[in-house]
């Protein structure tokens, strides 16, 4: 696409102003997909690959690591933009360090495999397994907070801290990208973060409501019809 076409596409999309203050996404996924149809075939392909790597729910910790490593390697090799390759590396590093925190909290020893995860930090993490925060607290300023929340099983705080870290990284990149394919990618990733947070908020609200109902009903709950 030309710069003019990127300009037209991006100016047609509603502004995403905030993450945690958002109640709903500023545009539906259906409408967003319609706007993104203006991209070329290759751009859509690369956009989908990056979204799969970056999207919160598509890189779960129980995913097949070998398959994800293979997919990440292929995706990164196909993406020509250095900005986007660096973003992919950053997100995969983030996933790796969070997975390492969980392993360490569970009492596991340093991974023995030569390539036990993905991104650029897995070997560094293995060498620094017994060092606080794997000596990565300066590269990832959010890491001490996430480690503390993890120790106290504060899942909501972990979610917020990680979402905010990604949001801030996208903000940092967006100051250099205005009307380009990179800017389109950033918009979609921001949309995904808002969708994840608003969905997560709804899930929390439902769980809290169920708990309140159970607490209020007490022993009478068992007498209710199922």
Number of beta-strand segments: 0
Strand content: under 5%
Structural class, from secondary structure content?
mainly alpha
User: How would you spell out the order of helices and strands?
Assistant: HHHHHHHHH
Biggest sheet, in brief? none
Query: Which spans of ≥5 residues are poorly predicted at pLDDT below 50?
Result: 58-62, 217-226
Pfam families: DUF2764
Protein name: DUF2764 family protein
InterPro entries: DUF2764 (IPR024492)
Would you write up a description of this structure?
InterPro entries: DUF2764 (IPR024492). With 226 residues, this protein is mostly helical. It has nine helices and no strands. The chain has one domain. It has helices at residues 3-11, 29-36, 41-54, 65-78, 82-105, 122-127, 143-151, 155-174, 181-217.
Offer a concise description of the structure:
The chain is built from nine helices and no strands. With 226 residues, it is an all-alpha fold.
